[in-house]
Design goal:
Elements: H1 16-38, H2 42-53, H3 59-66, H4 70-82, E1 86-90, E2 98-102, H5 104-112, H6 114-124, H7 128-144
Helix pairs in contact: 1-6
């Protein structure tokens, strides 16, 4: 059977999952130059975005917000801690509960990170409303799953 005999639903370019995967990779590549200047990886940037919104969430709350399991999140937090951007604290009332806090260095990155979102706008060539529509559809997709 040749490639031209493939049913349309089995063609790579017709797959929604591939379009989403490719879009996510393209977004990360667009962010990379600015994140490199900040000394951050894309997942580290996502952690800091959550902390800039609300300092001190528990590790489990952070994982839920980012859709990351503890096996992925723990090494990520360890690296951010090693770089001096966050601290992790065990709660006295329940030593199993660990909260994550920005350091001064982590908070200082907030001002430098303002341009990261603009980088994506410049890179993708979509209008503001188109990008918002893409974001909203992506959120619906995630919440449906």
């Amino acid at each position: 059977m040749s490639g031209t005999d493939t049913a349309p639903t089995l063609q790579l370019e017709k797959q929604v999952c591939f379009a989403l995967y490719s879009a996510a990779r393209a977004a990360q590549q667009a962010y990379r130059p600015l994140l490199d200047e900040l000394g951050l990886t894309y997942p580290q940037y996502l952690v800091l975005l959550v902390l800039w919104e609300q300092d001190g969430p528990s590790v489990s709350e952070l994982g839920a917000r980012l859709h990351l399991d503890s096996g992925t999140l723990s090494p990520l937090l360890r690296r951010l801690d090693t770089h001096g951007f966050i601290t992790r604290r065990r709660q006295e009332a329940d030593s199993r509960r660990v909260t994550v806090h920005l350091t001064e260095a982590g908070d200082a990155l907030r001002e430098r990170a303002v341009d990261v979102q603009r980088c994506l706008l410049d890179a993708v060539g979509l209008s503001g409303p188109e990008l918002l529509a893409l974001r909203d559809l992506s959120r619906r997709f995630v919440s449906a799953g």
